[in-house]
Hints:
Blueprint: E1 6-13, H1 20-33, E2 41-43, H2 55-61, E3 63-64, H3 69-81, E4 84-93, E5 100-107, E6 113-118, E7 124-126, E8 132-134, E9 147-150, E10 153-157, H4 166-174, E11 179-181, H5 188-206, E12 209-212, E13 216-218, E14 224-226, E15 230-232, E16 238-241, E17 247-254, H6 256-264
Parallel strand pairs: 1-2, 2-4, 3-4, 10-11, 11-12
Antiparallel strand pairs: 1-17, 4-5, 5-6, 7-8, 9-10, 12-15, 13-14, 15-16
Helix pairs in contact: 1-3
Amino acid sequence: MMIKKFLKISQLQIEGLEDPIKNSKLIKKNLLKTITFKPDIISTPECSNIITNDKKHLIENATFQNACPVLKECKEFAKKYNKVIHIGSLLLKKKYSNKLINRSFIIGGDGKIKKYYDKMHLFDVNINKKEIHRESESFIRGYKISTTTLFKIKIGLTICYDLRFPNLFRLLTKNGAKIIFVPAAFTIPTGKAHWEILLKARAIENTVFIIATGQCGHHHYKRKTYGNSLVVNPWGKILNQAKSFPKILNTTINLSEVEDTRSRMPSIYHD
Length: 271
């Protein structure tokens, strides 16, 4: 792939469903809507195959990677239309384990998996008396950072709660990342309080583009997510932003902004 100065990115902010087959149809419908924009990369949110507050339902309905209909749909679309797809994350079964993995994928234009990343930081929090999360009870954490090269540009992968750990973003930047993806299924209380400011902070600290694609709306078993997908440039400016309902966010980014910003604010070279 040649070096590009401009990258066109489509983000699919969806109101995800409780079943992988239903989500594969929803995502296919949205993928097809991006064609007129002619994106270089299409990004989906965390939990692209299944989203629910019901742990029993989650374990029963999640699939193994080789049987995931969302992964299959994205691979077929990528190959047919020669598009790179960033699947924000899939919740998948793992052999010989009663826990799942939360895995992000980069699918190349040939329809093959180019890179994957397993979520390193698990969301174990008490937001309030009504909202308590214990991802570690259902998921195995990842242990390796993950970068890949697209269009001769290094890309870094994170998932949701990773956003609160600046050292991860610094490691990705030190490994050459100029764009970092942050797919999410942020809660509404934490979204209102922290989503935008943390994304801007990670962009500013590392002088990178942040591409953050979120789930939105009301989901299975009373789960609610914040939405507000956005794109932040290396100076911390929001270039595009969705609200709290389903939307395809189309943005063209100028990659020269990374080096221009680093020449003015070379903080990543000073630690």
